[in-house]
Write a structure and sequence with these properties.
By secondary structure, this protein is an alpha+beta fold. Helix content is 32%, strand content 12%. It has 12 helices and 6 strands. It has helices at 13-20, 36-47, 64-68, 72-79, 121-135, 141-156, 164-171, 181-187, 198-201, 206-211, 286-297, 340-350; strands spanning 220-227, 232-243, 250-255, 278-283, 314-318, 335-339. 17% of the residues are buried.
Length: 351
């Protein structure tokens, strides 16, 4: 069903009576607006929701007859707003980046408008949409300032909108994908996991996963997030030092400042004591760990941190149960079990 705003193009009874009634002989004609008044009238027509343009058939003024009444100078200016396909003798071309393209092939047109464009369905649809935008108040200066303020906020990082995939997951639920064969093998979950809905799994708390031993001491939680507004990528590893059975809080060790990886002596199966460069933090929600990491990193200020799903930025790395050999790499032989977001979905499906 169409959601287009309902606009009546029928002239009101009062307007019909006013137009049909004779003008009194002694009445003075209203002076035509000039200069600044004319500009204000044009602004009113193109922006105000009560504009006469919203109450008429737009085809009455945007047509071939009206075009021919314009001066050549006006036609030249308006022609710049139309696509090349609206002109006679337009020749299509294939861009040079295409395998069949040629650098010598160019589009061309005679510069003479094809008047059939005014009967084109695409043109008429765009014209009616323009009417709807005026009627809905989207062309007003107030609306334009709101849009500009939002654009500026997105660019400087002071504003953010929820990711559309997160909104969809919350309202409708989505299929939880299996990220890798390793995660599928170690979790013992087959393709039926795809039926778990992330929207319903959002009710699962980190404390529920701790109580069910989904997380283990020695697991490495790897954080990675790209802040596009600042062009900064923050990466940091944290190893689970302890799990509190009463409060279900998770305590991790992680390197300070902008250091990404932990020293090898903290990643072995028999870890040593941390030195002064290692920090400790306790959290009960993924967002708490993310904030702690960003505070330590120091490159992303609190007022420039856009909203996001911390469950998707944290990946769990764990030793393989069938392999006791510790390889010397950044995570000491551990392999990825997927993000906390994925693991939460699997846990919700299995319980």
């Amino acid at each position: 069903m169409s959601t287009r705003p309902k606009r009546s193009t029928r002239q009101s009874t009062k307007a019909q009576e006013a137009s049909s009634s004779p003008v009194a002989s002694g009445s003075a004609a209203k002076p035509k607006p000039k200069g600044k008044d004319t500009e204000l009238n044009v602004q009113y027509l193109l922006q105000n929701p009560k504009s006469q343009l919203t109450k008429m058939d737009i085809g009455d003024i945007l047509n071939a007859e009206a075009w021919t009444m314009l001066s050549p100078e006006s036609q030249a200016v308006l022609s710049t707003l139309l696509p090349p396909t609206a002109f006679h003798d337009y020749k299509s071309y294939v861009d040079s980046t295409h395998p069949k393209g040629s650098s010598s092939t160019q589009s061309s047109s005679s510069g003479v408008l094809d008047l059939a464009v005014f009967k084109d369905s695409h043109f008429n649809s765009a014209a009616r949409t323009f009417q709807d935008h005026i009627f809905s108040g989207w062309k007003t200066e107030t609306q334009a300032s709101k849009v500009q303020r939002y654009i500026d906020g997105i660019r400087d990082g002071s504003l953010s909108a929820p990711y559309k995939d997160e909104v969809w997951e919350k309202d409708n639920g989505v299929l939880v994908p299996i990220p890798s064969p390793v995660a599928a093998r170690t979790s013992g979950v087959n393709d039926s996991v795809a039926s778990a809905r992330a929207g319903q799994a959002a009710d699962v708390k980190l404390s529920d996963m701790v109580a069910a031993a989904v997380l283990k001491v020695g697991d490495v939680i790897s954080y990675k997030r790209h802040f596009s507004g600042l062009d900064v990528v923050v990466e940091k590893d944290a190893v689970i030092q302890s799990l509190n059975p009463r409060t279900r809080a998770v305590t991790v060790l992680l390197p300070g400042s902008t250091t990404q990886y932990l020293p090898a002596d903290l990643l072995s199966r028999a870890p040593g004591e941390p030195d002064d460069s290692i920090r400790s933090t306790t959290f009960t929600a993924p967002s708490m760990l993310e904030n702690a990491i960003l505070d330590m990193d120091g490159r992303v200020e609190k007022n420039k941190r856009p909203n996001g799903n911390a469950w998707k930025t944290l990946t769990v790395w764990r030793w393989r149960e069938d392999d006791a050999v510790e390889s010397v790499d950044e995570r000491f032989g551990r392999e990825s079990h997927g993000t906390l977001f994925y693991i939460r979905g699997c846990f919700y499906h299995d319980r």
